[in-house]
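Lab notebook page, bench 4
Experiment: in silico fold of construct C2
Operator: M.H.
Input chain length: 412 residues
Purpose: comparison with the prior construct
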Amino acid sequence: MKPRVGAQIVRLSPAPEGWRAQTGADTCMGTTLKDLCTRLPGKLRAELLLPSSAIVTEQLALPEAPLEDLLSMTQLQLEKLLPYAADDFVFDIEELGQSGDGVRILAVTVPIPELKSCAEPLRAAGLGPVAVGVYAVQLARNLAAKGTVLALWIEGGLPYLLLAVDGKLVWLEGLPSENTEPEAAEVSRVILGAELAGVIPGPLTRACVDAPDWVNAVRQALPDVPIEEAPLEPLEELVGSWLPPAWAQEADALTRKSRFMERLQWLAIAYAALLAGGFCWLALEKSRIGKLDQRIAELQPQVELSNARQARWRNLEPAVEPSRYLIELLYQASQNVGGADIRITEFQVNPKEFAFSAEAANVSEAIEYVGRLKKNPELSSFKLDSPNPNILPNERAQFRVSGKVESLVSKR
């Protein structure tokens, strides 16, 4: 059986022959619970509906009280009526209505050995159970009509008959299973027993039969009651609980573990998605870098051509730029002498720079002269530099000025 996506609870319930597992609309059949559990995914958790053969019902009349007190009084009564100690059975109750000054209840009891026998395959397979109900109680709830309703069905190869009042189980009895023709007298006997026990307040309003061999017997026993021939389905929402406290703790632990593992799976999925997104981003960036490299390679010839043109222009610049002619540089150097006692003794020029040596009457005149050169707008395309002057034996100041083309200095 393939459960629905996201389904975590599978309901196991008796079938006409064997057992049925159901998650939503998906159903799987098995001859035994053990056989059925081997075919279920381990990630599921089971909700078990006990068969009618595993339960014991007792009608009790108790003083009206809150539910907790009713449960305590019911346990005391069951310990007196049943051959079991307090720890040997689990039970739940159906409140049937008022009875004089008190309340009538139906105690549905399950001996622990019967419960263990039913649940052992689930526990061995790690499926729980996380909840335990009673199949007959769920059937009675799903009848849901006002009044008294009879239901007859086949469970595990055996016929069972229940009576429900306003959707609550009030009477449950197994019918003879010998290989004989079903008899109306058996149906009448069960109804008469319920009437004598005072559990049904009035005549039957309808009958639901999910056992083809028993339809005629029911029709003969109840000639004036409407009969529906249709499959009987238990109520989807679980009613009551027959899960022992220790098992409930185990079920809670399994549920917490399952939720924890589910969160881990979602985290793993998110992490995997994040990794996938990262790899996609890296692939995209790699593709963009590849395209950029390809574009650079396509532009490289143009860049090289531009660089070659720029180099040629720089080589030609001293020849076409008047401000870099020898005569112009010598003129600017001489013009800035003014009235100072400065003599230029050596002058050198090449395409990249010029330099000259000179003598001044004193250090102060040399420094002032260099300052005037640096402020000269005609020499702005050069970066001028002048070390500290030297004092000659005749007390004159000897200095040197060099000027490099500004564009070449910036490039370095």
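Observations: Residues 245-320 form the longest helix (76 residues). The chain has three domains: 9-243, 249-317, 323-411.
Next step: discuss at group meeting.
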